[in-house]
Design brief:
With 107 residues, the chain is of the alpha+beta class. It has one domain: Alpha-Beta Plaits (2-Layer Sandwich). Helix content is 17%, strand content 11%. It is built from 3 helices and 4 strands; from the N terminus they run βαβββαα.
Length: 107
């Protein structure tokens, strides 16, 4: 069972989670991170590190976020791997509480 990055990450792209990942299974898009489900070892270290609660165990993904299971699997094949924490986008704080951000996802 893998962990999945959901909607809350879009336009926040905080990388606290990347720093604790032992297997470097995070991939970075223009305004979001995703997890490669084939590389994730289900260690759960990333989940509590996410300041915007954007990471869920695959079997606990909220029903309205189920499409992100497929999106993580798809986008990790297109985006580059990220293994070190980076500074967040300048406007990340403005997006922390915004819901339903899928329309802002940049692929």
């Amino acid at each position: 069972m893998a962990f999945i990055v959901v909607d809350s990450c879009i336009k926040c792209k905080l990388t606290d989670c990347v720093e604790v990942c032992h297997v470097d299974c995070f991939y970075e898009g223009p305004n979001m991170l995703v997890i490669n489900p084939d590389e994730c070892i289900d260690c759960a270290l990333c989940e509590p590190e996410c300041p915007v609660d954007a990471i869920y165990s695959e079997d606990e993904v909220p029903e309205d976020q189920i499409s992100f299971i497929e999106l993580n699997a798809e986008l990790c094949m297109e985006w580059p791997n990220i293994a070190e924490q980076k500074d967040p986008p300048e406007d990340a704080d403005e997006w922390r509480e915004v819901k339903n951000k899928i329309k802002y996802l940049e692929k």
